[in-house]
Amino acid sequence: MRGNNRSRRRRIKVMMDRRLVENFDWSIVFLFFAISCLGLVSLYSALYTQIQIHPTRNLFVKQLIWFALGCLIFLATLFVDYHKLKKLAPWIYAATLLALAVVLIVGDGIKGSRRWLNIAGFNLQPSEFMKLALVLQLARMFSSQDVEPYPPLRQLIPAAGISLAPALLIVVEPDLGTSLCLLAVAFTMVFVLGIRWRYLLVITLVGLLSVYPLWHYGLKEYQRERIRTVLAPERDPMGSGYHTIQSKVAVGSGMMWGKGFLNGTQNKLRFLPEKHTDFIFSVWAEEWGFWGCSVMIALFFLFICASLRVAGRAKDRFGMLLVVGLTALVMWQALINIGMVIGLLPVVGITLPFVSYGGSSLLTLCAAVGLIENVSMRRYAFRPS
User: Fold this and answer.
1) 110-to-49, 116, 125, 126, 352 alpha-carbon distances in Å
2) CA 315 – CA 235 distance, rounded (Å)
3) pTM score, two decimals?
4) Comparing C-alpha atoms, which of 326, 313, 375 is closest to residue 83?
5) pLDDT per residue over 84-112, tens digit each?
6) 313 within a domain of the structure (yes/no)
7) Closest Cα to residue 363, out of 195, 129, 184?
């Protein structure tokens, strides 16, 4: 009898493992690796001159190491049932929020910003990890049986507090772009859950009334200057408008087919600033032209669509909201970065997902892709909300 039970459990386990493999969404992995490979090609070109001058300070090799670690994290997230993260979400959020507070005290300052913690020789950016922690915590909160679609204001206020706390800490670093990205992701999750129209009207009204005090008292002078630059970058071509002007020149000079790999003049002659981080898309546009940009944007679009398909198939609200939040993270970062690069949005320091240099960002995004696949693999197992 005992042997029969053991055999039955073994058959159930084999069946479960087969279902995990059968529900694995290979399209998401393909798109993830495709975008990452294009990013590595573009990053190598952006860093090519620096590699020749300082071969010992090879950031491209560092990015390869980060990518390898990210792939390991991606694989690790597949083996942990995402439902178990629901209990851990508050602890992950609290630990990351503590790290954000610590970085303001003992963090490494670079170019006037204090965003990094040096751990064992690696600079880690807690604000990047907070993106994942916030999505987990909001998904947990909104998946509670007490929270129904179109929740009342009393259920939205705690979510607003959870979103604003890290956003305010990140603004102090200062990092306005990441702070806005966090709030955009939180709003997307609330919008998908369902938000009453009168709340939207109140939010819009409050936003409009906040423009004047935020402009005069909330933003620093360099941040106001970046917003003015969007309207007229030529007013200060060697100062606040320099980044936008050089980026637009690089994008425009690529024309239809681009100048070819390693042949971008704005890149090679070092006119393009922050070309391996914020303006990596400019490097790609100059070398591969309109069609190259179309391919990269199409890959991002397909990745977002494939991820939203996973959200639609999720069997519980926690899984659905988790995938929506992680997809929104990629979507908003890509939209803001590309809009920034082509001069439609102010320069706010948002990197291009999977493409720009940055270890913390890449590790977070690889974990996000792993969690999206995690939900897809376990969509056969119904769990109550």
Assistant:
1) 22, 8, 12, 15, 20
2) 54
3) 0.88
4) 375
5) 999 999 999 999 999 999 988 887 766 66
6) yes
7) 129
